[in-house]
Design a protein that fits this description.
- The chain has helices at 16-23, 76-88, 107-120, 132-140, 153-174, 182-190, 193-196, 203-212, 245-251, 284-292, 311-321, 360-365, 391-404; strands at residues 3-8, 29-32, 41-45, 48-52, 65-68, 73-74, 97-99, 103-104, 200-201, 217-220, 258-266, 269-271, 305-307, 309-310, 325-329, 339-348, 351-353, 367-374, 407-412, 420-422.
- The chain is of the alpha/beta class.
- It folds into 2 domains: 3-91 and 202-422, Alpha-Beta Complex (Adenylosuccinate Synthetase, Chain A, domain 3); 103-197, Adenylosuccinate Synthetase, subunit A, domain 2.
- It has a 10-stranded mixed beta sheet with strand order 9-7-5-2-10-1-11-15-19-20, sandwiched between helices.
- Strand 16 (339-348) and strand 17 form a beta hairpin.
- The radius of gyration is 22 Å and the shape is globular.
Length: 428
């Protein structure tokens, strides 16, 4: 079995954790390849709900080896808190492996993230303030701190001194904040070394060896396609590559291994933070989706912006990622609507546009063109076969499948672990 990638096909929060959990019993390794603790997965197992922020959701499945690879930025305090919280609930976290090349979020990254966002005023991006962007910026500027550095105090101190030499000028002279002491940062990072050391490996070598041995490796993307730093709604994006291609660089494996790409889409659309959102609803229907879908951020608790399904976005994601299968989640949230709009194209300057405009300005002003489908009132949470769904629900699924660029292989009909319909096997 080649490597499998799961990616969000909208603006995040599509239910990637549940999709991972759906096939995790057939997986040997689950790898987080981008992002940090600025996003979360919620997985429901029985009566237990688990909110994961930095850890791969495969950590909840016995026998699976969870991996945090080089493309991730790690806040060690958050990581240890999350590990301890799971351990306290009886979850075995001893198999976690962390890349020595992953970059570390420090206190000055978090501080800069918050003060920079406030400084932007009306131009705020909607960052979570957890230091993700500044850490990736330091990585690209080659002044970052990597996991391996906390095991060598001399190297660590040298790197922190270099970074703070610049950042303290910004904090004091531009943002009117206090300077951060080198010792303060170094001592904090060194305090995690003993706990993290047993988990750290060359994860690129580990995963290459696993694939050579015929093991199944699942790459789990954080955030989503429309938040990708290159292919999303820039600048209202995350700071990493959240698309399938990011799995190759973010984990250090060969691109040709990525033969199966599973894209996750909600039966409607949400996003958190600023930026264009053509189908956004500021009315009772938006509140209906938010309330019925429990649309509040796993990490931040912020209410999500809600809108109807956007087929051009799904097609774009299918193309950018090479999606082989879609998982359509939260179909049950639409229950009770008399009619359900689907965005099939946009109107830009009076013209019909079938795909996402290449101009951000055009996309920002794009107006959705809708087709309407009859809704259903029957409870579908108990459906486990496609034919169990009401006719109108089946018609809706088939309609959005035809517009979205890849087959819909599974359908989520509720929050429970088994509340899913499988139309086609995700793994052959």
């Amino acid at each position: 079995m080649p490597a499998v990638v799961i990616v969000g096909a909208q603006w995040g929060d599509e239910g990637k954790g549940k999709a991972t959990d759906l096939i995790a019993d057939r997986i040997d390794y689950v790898v987080k390849f981008n992002g940090g603790n600025n996003a979360g997965h919620t997985v429901v197992i029985g009566d237990e709900k688990y909110a994961l922020h930095l850890l791969p959701s495969g950590i909840l499945t016995p026998g699976v080896i969870p991996v945090i690879s080089n493309g991730v930025v790690i806040d060690p305090e958050v990581l240890i808190e999350e590990l301890d919280a799971l351990s306290a609930r009886g979850i075995d976290v001893s198999k976690l492996v962390i890349s020595s090349h992953a970059h570390i979020i420090t206190q000055y990254h978090r501080t800069l993230d918050k003060v920079t966002e406030r400084f932007l005023g009306k131009r705020q991006i909607g960052t979570t303030g957890r230091g993700i962007g500044p850490t990736y910026a330091d990585k690209i500027n080659r002044v970052g701190i990597r996991v391996q550095d906390i095991f060598d105090e001399g190297i660590l101190r040298q790197k922190v001194e270099g970074a703070l030499g610049q950042k303290n000028h910004l904090l004091v002279k531009i943002y009117n904040r206090r300077a951060i002491e080198v010792d303060e940062v170094v001592n904090d990072l060194l305090s995690y070394a003993e706990r993290l050391r047993p988990m750290v490996q060359d994860t690129a070598l580990l995963l290459h060896t696993a694939l050579e041995e015929g093991k199944t490796v699942l790459f789990e993307g954080g955030q989503a396609t429309m938040l990708d730093v290159d292919h999303g709604t820039y600048p209202f994006v995350t700071s990493s590559n959240a698309t399938a291609g990011g799995a190759a660089t973010g984990a250090g494996i060969a691109p040709w291994r990525l033969a199966t790409v599973i894209g996750i889409v909600k039966a409607y659309t949400t996003r958190v933070g600023s930026g264009p959102f053509p189908t956004e609803l500021d009315d009772e229907f938006g509140e209906f989706l938010r309330k019925n879908g429990h649309e509040f951020g796993t990490t931040t608790g912020r209410p999500r912006r809600c809108g109807w399904y956007d087929a051009p976005i799904a097609r774009y994601s299918a193309r950018i990622n090479g999606v082989t299968d879609f998982v359509l989640t939260k179909l049950d949230v639409l229950t009770g609507l008399e009619k359900i709009p689907v965005c099939v194209a946009y109107e830009v300057d009076g013209e019909r546009v079938e795909e996402i405009p290449w101009s951000q300005s055009d996309f920002h002003h794009a107006k959705p063109i809708y087709e309407y489908f009859p809704g259903w009132s029957e409870d579908i949470s108990g459906a486990r076969e496609f034919d169990d769904l009401p006719q109108n629900a089946r018609d809706y699924v088939l309609a959005v499948e035809g517009m979205s660029g890849a087959r819909i292989s599974a359908i989520g009909v509720g929050p429970a672990r088994d509340a899913i319909i499988t139309r086609h096997p995700l793994l052959d």
